[in-house]
Amino acid sequence: MNWIQVGNLQDIPRQGSRVVKTAAGEIALFRSVDDQVFALNNRCPHKGGQLSQGIVHGTRVTCPMHNWVIDLESGEAIAPDKGCAHRHEVRVAHGVLFLEVRTEV
Amino acid sequence: MNKQKQRLVVIGNGMAGIRTLEELLKMSPDEFEITVFGAELQPNYNRILLSPVLSGEMKFQDTVLNDWSWYQENNITLHVGKTVNKIDRFRCQVETEDGMVVPYDRLLIATGSNPIMLPIPGMNLPGVLAYRSIDDVEKMLAAARTGKRAVVIGGGLLGLEAANGLSLQGMEVSVVHLCDWPMERQLDKVGGGLLKEALEKRGLKFYLSRQTEAILGDDKVSGLRFADGEEIEADLLVMAAGIRPNIALAKSAGIHCERGIVVSDTMQTFDPKIYSVGECVQHRGQTYGLVAPLFEQAKVAANHLARYGRMRYEGSSVSTKLKVTGIDLFSAGDFNPGPGDEELLLQDSARGVYKKLVLRDNKLRGAVLYGETMDGPWYFQLMRDGTDITEMREHILFGQMHLGDSGRGGVSSVANMPDTAEICGCNGVCKGTIVSAIIDKKLFTLEEVRAHTKASASCGSCTGLVEAILANTLGGDYSAKSSKKAICACTESAHQDMPQAIRDLGVKNIPDLMRALQWKTPDGCHVCRPALNYYLMTAWPGEYQDDSRSRFINERVHANIQKDGTYSVIPRIWGGVTSPAELRAIAEIAERHEVPTVHITGGQRIGLYGITKENLPKMWGELVEAGFVSGHAYGKSLRTVKTCVGSEWCRFGTQDSTGLGIKVEKLTWGSWTPHKFKIAVSGCPRNCAEATIKDFGIVCVDSGYEIHVGGNGGIKVRVTDFLCKVETEEQVMEYCGAFMQLYREQAHYLDRTAHWIERVGLAYVKQYIVDDAAGRVELYARFLESQRYSQDDPWKERAEGKDAHEFAALAVIE
User: ω before A13 within 30° of 0 (cis)?
Assistant: First the structure.
């Protein structure tokens, strides 16, 4: 477990997402309209769609593949769909983004 | 809790009252301290499903909509078995029979209706029941265990369902009815006759045009006597002669009542602190006994209680379906033709099919369907949309399927489908799954079925079938979406409100528009944002700043996302004409980038598949270098102009279809439309370019050019409608631009031209494009004006560095 600097808040557009590639797979960082930042696996629990490519609204993202809606805070799919795109810890300090990367998957 | 909450008292624990609370809690969970009074001893249950409980197809538990814990979880104080007998409007409090007093700030009266008990001698004998509550059903079931013969007075919807249920419980059932045929309020004479025959085959006996003089029996019911003296025996007698709004309490409080409690469009009674919803209400002279209108009322009442103050109830049109398993009938609107109305009839006695449509001024006013009801929701929609049906008149009776539908195997009645029949081909959902979700999860609307089963949630071609299954499962209590439907759950605003609202408000960006229209979410969702982006762009061409965050990924990055997260790249091939140099350039680029699949598309172009996102700008740069522009194969925009070789080569060709196709593509490329838009030009009526299944199709003939509109291939093949014939290429261009502009300005976002034309009718489009020459010129001018801002190649811009963040990873961690 360690915090890694991955970029600046302004690198992610509001209501947008950027991807961090890791050895264990891609992690999508999201920035909501009110500048909260979240990190999830870049895989929809449904069929593996890239969540980073979805439309971000409120604290949710809609997967571009089949419109599953995922809660950014928990990574859980919004009911009645079920599934989780596991979340990662992310912090913003003075506009700099730090991502906690687990050494094991 | 510091702030003193407002107190809301609800009289009535039925479907309308509780639905209002559900809507209210969704909008404003902490607004009120809520108290509910219910006369019955049960929690809120689904009264619609009493018939299946009576027939033994369901248990009572399955009909409970909100169990006791729901009231607790929402901090609602519930008093069951308590009757409110006084509303003191001066002190703002209600009083119960046993002396309980509860004050209110707002009161909601949802007392429903009472069964009409005809004043016949013997009415009060044991064994005479109404058919209204679960209590009645339990008594009927008990009677069915011991008695043999049942008589139902009333051959309406409710009476027939009761009769059918009792018959399934093993009783011999007779139906007594005043009119010449059953369900005369929903069926005409022929339809009613067919229904009677079908029910007779199931063992029901009918006494029609008969008046009951007395109910016989000493200590309990034993039979009845008609006015003509004939007597029949009965161990059980059910009164199902109709319902009457329950207004006694309201009336005694001095609230203005006529047949029902009179309410305004905001569901307020004469006393503005007191609202009313449900069967007890009279709105614009109408009372309603079906669930769909009650739910619409509930939504409006909740909106005002929550102090949004935005919605109005403007009345409902209702359709009816009988919930007797295996009998398919549907009726809607005014099906008894008046003076000046026309009737379209289809009767096939051998198949037991009868259809009647009533028209006025080429618009559908009413429908009766018997035996084949699949198209009921479609007719209902045409009715409410006021679609001009002139162009489909010839085959409208044969149903929507006849207008083109594939993949349904000719099945025309959902009632006859086996549970294993696949309804939604995209998501593999069978009929049985949908039916059990509707029952188990208590679903009422198409949206709910979509959320729970995914049926009709992808391409939408099975929407009609899913609606038919809903109608079939819920009976009269399902009503198709009202023609004015909110864009999504974020708002009450509908698609058709947008262009006007944007112009009136003068707003030029999404956040301002959402604020002005009181969006319920901070920044919308994946459904409304792309729609608003579209409407704003259409309203302010050249001025509106496109919001890429409100674009679906394909339009945001100008390439189509594939299932593995890679993209496709499809350059524009003008009119489908290419050259060795172009082909060589594509080949080299494909080779250099090791493109896994090179595919010839259906639109006469070449698709390169399996391109990673990072690689897109580079590949585009190379294509731009070789003279290509984006093919917009990913956009709600002009896709291709398909052509044949025409008079240049073909011995049958009448005009230069290839040359015209290229001109049309140069005119229209880069344009954004509500959905994708395809054009084709065929050089002769042999139509090798398949122009008659395109949004805009040109068929060259010796004397000029035929223009066809509103076709599409795909999920639901629709052949174009013939719009008109013109003489010159210049005219073709003008009509094409004007048609695209009309579609762009007037269709809802995500309507294909086919949907749009089916809704408004071809006559409407002709009026703008063909009949009004000056209007057409203006439309064309507006089209050209917007094109000035949209013919920049998005690939070139991105190859040069625009939106670079879209294509690169933020960081790579080894």
Answer: no
